[in-house]
Specification:
Length: 339
């Protein structure tokens, strides 16, 4: 008998960290997690949890997992973020596209074997948008899901193709087969920049937000790599995981789309600095824009329209900007660094 499991890829990353805590807190103790790294100590020892150190590009490993587990839900979080992906675009393509394809194929196989769709949760990103210049960014201030889908990063291209592949597997996979196969239940959230109080991102382009706050809390100087007026939407990590879980729990018939924008607040880098200085008046924050990373941020929208998520599955962030700093970021970050 195979054991039932929820599979989480990229479990040792920032989102995995918060998702595992939440799933464990909800008593969902049949987790199978996968990452190229071991899990941090704080996440080890969760009851009923098995962690496998391995690569989503390893077909033998995926075959072994399928032989041992009946997987009915997949949170496919593993990815190389936007800045890192620009340095190694071919590797990013392998991890972000081929890796996603491997997981979708696994989900499709499992769905057919079970005779019921496997649920597939996929985090996408504002990086799938690409505005050509700052005039357009000012004019098209809050973009909707189908607007400006013209990414200028490898990561953005990979993510939008992942959305399309998921949609294909959900709606059209083996559409010409004599018998209609059971397809997967693909659900996707496009996230803005994410900020956690407990972890730091690595290799993203929205990293200046979290880096600025964590540096100030440690009393370290920070040179921000984008201009003061650079504006994109952000969200706290607990809200991001809430969004994924809310979408996972929504009745299928309520969902009019497979891919949804979500957001919480939109801030310029200068506004983040001002907020940080309210709590850490001695913070030494300067601006030393890197024109190349700046250009990526300039192509991302200043805000996104998440009214579809609000309407279809009751999305609403718990943390607006005030609560995000006052109740989540600052107290937890102070505690983390003992300041
Ligand atoms: N935070 C991500 C990045 O900067 C965007 O999804 O790459």
């Amino acid at each position: 008998m195979r054991k039932k499991a929820i599979l989480v890829t990229g479990a040792a990353g920032e989102m995995g960290h918060e998702l595992l805590r939440r799933l464990a807190a909800e008593g969902r103790n049949r987790l199978l997690t996968l990452d190229v790294r071991p899990l941090p100590e704080s996440l080890q020892g969760l009851e009923g949890h098995v962690h496998v150190v391995g690569d989503i590009l390893d077909p033998q490993l995926l075959a072994r997992l399928v032989s041992e587990y009946e997987i009915d839900v997949i949170y496919h979080l593993a990815a190389l973020l936007s800045t890192r992906a620009e340095f190694t675009p071919e590797t990013a393509h392998r991890v972000n596209v081929e890796g996603t394809m491997n997981l979708l194929r696994l989900a499709a196989e499992q769905s057919q074997w079970r005779g019921q769709p496997v649920q597939f949760l996929f985090p996408s990103s504002i990086a799938i948008y690409g505005l050509p210049d700052l005039e357009s960014k000012a004019l098209f201030n809050r973009v909707r899901e189908w607007e400006w889908n013209q990414p200028r990063t490898m990561y953005g291209c990979n993510k939008i193709y992942g959305e399309m592949l998921g949609t294909y597997f959900s709606r059209y996979y083996r559409q010409l087969a004599p018998e209609q196969p059971v397809t997967i239940d693909f659900r996707c959230v496009r996230f803005p920049g994410l900020i956690s109080a407990f972890t730091l991102p690595s290799g993203g382009t929205s990293d200046y937000g979290p880096e600025m706050i964590h540096a100030a809390a440690q009393g370290e100087p920070y040179a921000c790599f984008v201009r003061e007026d650079a504006r994109i939407p952000f969200m706290t990590m607990p809200d991001a995981i809430r969004a994924l879980l809310l979408l996972a729990g929504a009745p299928r018939e309520r969902l009019s789309r497979l891919v949804y924008n979500v957001t919480a607040f939109s801030l310029s880098a200068g506004e983040i600095r001002d907020r940080v200085q309210r709590y850490f008046p001695d913070a030494r924050i300067t601006f030393r824009p890197d024109p190349k990373r700046q250009a990526i941020i300039d192509s991302w929208p200043a805000d996104v329209d998440d009214s579809m998520a609000r309407r279809d599955w009751g999305w609403e962030p718990e943390y607006d900007v005030e609560r995000a700093f006052e109740e989540y970021l600052i107290p937890n970050i102070r505690q983390r660094y003992g300041r």
